[in-house]
Amino acid sequence: MPLAPESRLFPLARLASALLALAALLVVGCASKPDSESSAGSRENGVLVLTRDDDQRTAEVRVGEQIRVRLPEKHGTGYVWAIDETDRQRLALDSTGFEDPTEGFIGARGMRTFTFTARQPGEVVLKLKHWRIWEGEGSVTERFVVTLRIQE
């Protein structure tokens, strides 16, 4: 027995509805920014502060602006945060320091702080590594990478 014309249209209507729903999801997905592309860091007294949460993200700064990177470090283990790679023409290291934990027990994590100043416009990829210097690259336990877009 042949199908009535309206019964052949029903699967096409369902397919069309599904395609419209898929197209709507694609439009919404393309319009929103993933976290990895949202602006990194927070501003504190005119200084851009970056933390572990900002790994693999991008931030915009202006020439002359300071950038402070704060990463947890267990000072007594021999593992320290160090600069792995950066563009020293565009980004100058002002200081580095370690803050002991204010609470907790002996051996608790403190905070390693690097302070930089943006010197020239351009894009800089700042790479830090957590390692034991005397053990070399094989001792790297963690990496931190942030892209800085420096503007006039």
UniProtKB/TrEMBL annotation:
The UniProt record lists the keyword Cell inner membrane: no
Swiss-Prot/TrEMBL keywords: Protease inhibitor, Thiol protease inhibitor
Transmembrane segments: none
Superkingdom of this protein's organism: Bacteria
Pfam families for the chain: Inhibitor_I42
Source species taxonomy: Bacteria, Pseudomonadati, Pseudomonadota, Gammaproteobacteria, Candidatus Competibacteraceae
Species of the source: Candidatus Competibacter phosphatis
InterPro entries, per database record: Chagasin-like_sf (IPR036331), Cys_protease_inhibitor_I42 (IPR052781), Prot_inh_I42_chagasin (IPR018990)
Keyword Heme carried by entry: no
Proteinase inhibitor I42 chagasin domain residues: 61-147
Protein name: Proteinase inhibitor I42 chagasin domain-containing protein
